[in-house]
Amino acid sequence: MIKCSLTKGSSFILAFFLLVLLTLVGCSSDSGGTTDSGASSGGDSTNGESASGGEWAGQTVKVQLIGDFSMEDSTDPITGVKTPGLKNLKDEFEKQYPGATVEFIIMPWEGYTEKTQAMLTSGEADVYQMPGIADFAAQGLLEPLQPYIDADSEFSLDSFIDNQVDGWKALGPDSSELDIFGLPFLGDARFITYDKKIFDDWGVEYLSEFPTMEEISEKAAKMTGTNPVTGEQNYGVWFRGDWSSAFTLVNAAEGLGGKWGTGFAWDEIEFQFNSQEMVKGLNWLLDMQKLAPEGIVSNQGNEKWLTKDNNIAIMLNQGPGDLVQQTYAQGLEDRIAIAQEFKDENGQGGLFAGSPITIAKDSENKELAWEWLKFATSDFAQQYVYETGAFPAVKSATEWESVKEYESLLGPVFKAMSTPYTPRYPWGSAQPRFILTSEIEAALTGKRNAQEALDKAQKESTEWLENR
Amino acid sequence: MAKNSLELETTSGPNSQLKSEVETIRQKKRKSQLTWYIFLIPSFLGILLFMVYPIFESLRLSFYQSNGTIENYIGLANFKTVLTSGPFWNSVWNTFFIGIFQIIITIPLGFIFASLINSTPKGQNFFKVIYFLPNVTSIVAASMIFAFVLHPEMGIVNYALDSIGLPTLKWLASPDTSKWAVILLAVWHWIGFVIIICLANLQAISPEMYEAARIDGASGIQQWLFITVPNMAGTFAFLLITGWIGALQRFNEVYVLGGPNGSPARSIQTMGAFIYERGFTGFEFGIASAATYIMFMIILVFTFLNLKISKMKL
């Protein structure tokens, strides 16, 4: 009987402790959990010293970043290049701002929008990397930055590559004028890439700096077939027929003097998806499809691109991504070249992309958050960004030795970054994009002709706009 | 132990003392039972937080226009939008098309393979492992590999078709063949499970029945038709119901192969992908929630029909 009671008592105590343990784990301070990288290194001796005194003593700024960032240094498995960790940024920031602490919350690109939304709603961070700035600014979740810019004599927007600040402007919840809610942090661009060796093999002149659609068609047609030198099947052109095809089409229309539509706020937007220029652009893509491998609608057929066995002459609507690193890692620096996308009469054209950084409206540490924004867009942090394989957004980058070394590739990328279509496409991550993409796919797979496909896209997008 | 002590007290004390003793033992029993409830609390809380709450929150959201932060009550408008949406019904069609063919191919084929494996005198375990391997493979990884296998120019399937003189297909690059690409992947992935379940049932059928049938002069096919197949009815019903529920919830493989909008031209966009597209790429949580409840109703009705057809008792 005693033995039995003890057993019951023990199990009761065990259950109780398990419950307490579970509660403690679940409710423990987030300084040890969610901000893994930031907080894990936040307990080192450097932080202990910095937190104890200085102008910013006791203040912490929480920074959310998206992508392949890590706290520690790492080595790229393909290129073998060493990538510095975020601790370099942390150490420098905490050195420049004595007493301040920076904590990082890193998330993957997968599902970043909904995760950002959740974080903003629950006030998880002070500073956010935010490609979907227009959606969040309209919800009143972001701090307008113009007052900070005006009050800070040390800071100038001139340091950014042209068009980058304008591209990230957005509408606040109650304003009708575009305002600054974010500063450019990661640069991005779209351009046309080509393989000079295939041009040489076919005896075709390289693309001009600003090629026209006719130039692309003509040259791509010449380079489709059996390569006269290697005997391999070559394709004149490749483009993604699925995910990003809407942007490729809109850029083609821009090259013809057209545009996707007008307006920025949803209640002002008017689509022009079935304009003459858009129809002509889609017909051009249908012509280009004949010079491309079969799998463009399923993102296939470009497997040999950026390898020595490449079989594609011209790649439309490309981004910098790993272009530079992989080009050099594969020893293709003498083969790969870049031309600009199609531009309109104002010299603008192509998708505006990248990432700005913003301050959350409900941040309790806005002054330090602003200092972080300035730091993150300084040469030190932007060089760090460049070393991690991303693209800086500041003009001074073109003067860095590490950039000059790859001038032939990076020069056109920086140029492309200064001439995208601005303001950015407000429908770029909303339903109209998927409607347009699906109809482009329908045209590319022969389900509908260009006019029918774009009429349907226009109708569905307009209906969506009316019902939202 | 408790019973013994109660018997002891009953024989030795007066009635009042006996009553209080009985209560004490009852209390002890209650305490003992309470312990196990405490053990259940963590998982119960988990279910409450991560299942029950989202289910009701999703129902609430379906009556709102919501982007996660700003919400406006709009009544049944989201349900109307979904039910009148062409892409939604297209996704329903895709889901059923892929599901029907996956089931009508996999269950009979799996049963035949299971019968063959069951008949082999040696190496049964080897075949079981080989056929079950696809089922333990991550569907995401398998989908990525299938994209290469079904590559229109470099894929091994088209290479095989071409080498035996058959016309090659565009597979995922054409809306006409993309659904068949998904069906092929789904059959490959699920057939191992079907084989194992069928085998378990086959091995449970009494050998005496076959022996009696042989004595009566039944041929092998007759034994299979009149003994094996009827005895498999419960298993077929189970596979039909679980297969349908899985098919109607299909998301992972079509997301990997065709993205949230089921490229090409929404040809492989399932109901799950439609919900993801509207909810997590377009921030239309109200519409996504309404579509989720409509999908739930569709699954409910279909499962009910399946239960009726298969005469399976819950």
Automatic annotation (TrEMBL), chain A:
<keyword id="KW-0564">Palmitate</keyword>
<dbReference type="Pfam" id="PF01547">
    <property type="entry name" value="SBP_bac_1"/>
</dbReference>
<dbReference type="InterPro" id="IPR006059">
    <property type="entry name" value="SBP"/>
</dbReference>
<feature type="region of interest" description="Disordered">
    <location>
        <begin position="33"/>
        <end position="55"/>
    </location>
</feature>
<keyword id="KW-1003">Cell membrane</keyword>
<feature type="coiled-coil region">
    <location>
        <begin position="440"/>
        <end position="467"/>
    </location>
</feature>
<protein>
    <submittedName>
        <fullName>Extracellular solute-binding protein</fullName>
    </submittedName>
</protein>
<keyword id="KW-0175">Coiled coil</keyword>
<keyword id="KW-0449">Lipoprotein</keyword>
<dbReference type="InterPro" id="IPR050490">
    <property type="entry name" value="Bact_solute-bd_prot1"/>
</dbReference>
<keyword id="KW-0472">Membrane</keyword>
<feature type="compositionally biased region" description="Low complexity">
    <location>
        <begin position="33"/>
        <end position="48"/>
    </location>
</feature>
<keyword id="KW-0732">Signal</keyword>
Automatic annotation (TrEMBL), chain B:
<keyword id="KW-1133">Transmembrane helix</keyword>
<keyword id="KW-0812">Transmembrane</keyword>
<keyword id="KW-1003">Cell membrane</keyword>
<keyword id="KW-0472">Membrane</keyword>
<feature type="transmembrane region" description="Helical">
    <location>
        <begin position="129"/>
        <end position="150"/>
    </location>
</feature>
<comment type="similarity">
    <text>Belongs to the binding-protein-dependent transport system permease family.</text>
</comment>
<dbReference type="Pfam" id="PF00528">
    <property type="entry name" value="BPD_transp_1"/>
</dbReference>
<keyword id="KW-0813">Transport</keyword>
<feature type="transmembrane region" description="Helical">
    <location>
        <begin position="34"/>
        <end position="56"/>
    </location>
</feature>
<feature type="transmembrane region" description="Helical">
    <location>
        <begin position="96"/>
        <end position="117"/>
    </location>
</feature>
<feature type="transmembrane region" description="Helical">
    <location>
        <begin position="223"/>
        <end position="247"/>
    </location>
</feature>
<dbReference type="GO" id="GO:0055085">
    <property type="term" value="P:transmembrane transport"/>
</dbReference>
<feature type="transmembrane region" description="Helical">
    <location>
        <begin position="180"/>
        <end position="202"/>
    </location>
</feature>
<dbReference type="InterPro" id="IPR000515">
    <property type="entry name" value="MetI-like"/>
</dbReference>
<dbReference type="GO" id="GO:0005886">
    <property type="term" value="C:plasma membrane"/>
</dbReference>
<feature type="domain" description="ABC transmembrane type-1">
    <location>
        <begin position="92"/>
        <end position="306"/>
    </location>
</feature>
<dbReference type="InterPro" id="IPR051393">
    <property type="entry name" value="ABC_transporter_permease"/>
</dbReference>
<protein>
    <submittedName>
        <fullName>Sugar ABC transporter permease</fullName>
    </submittedName>
</protein>
<feature type="transmembrane region" description="Helical">
    <location>
        <begin position="285"/>
        <end position="307"/>
    </location>
</feature>
<dbReference type="InterPro" id="IPR035906">
    <property type="entry name" value="MetI-like_sf"/>
</dbReference>
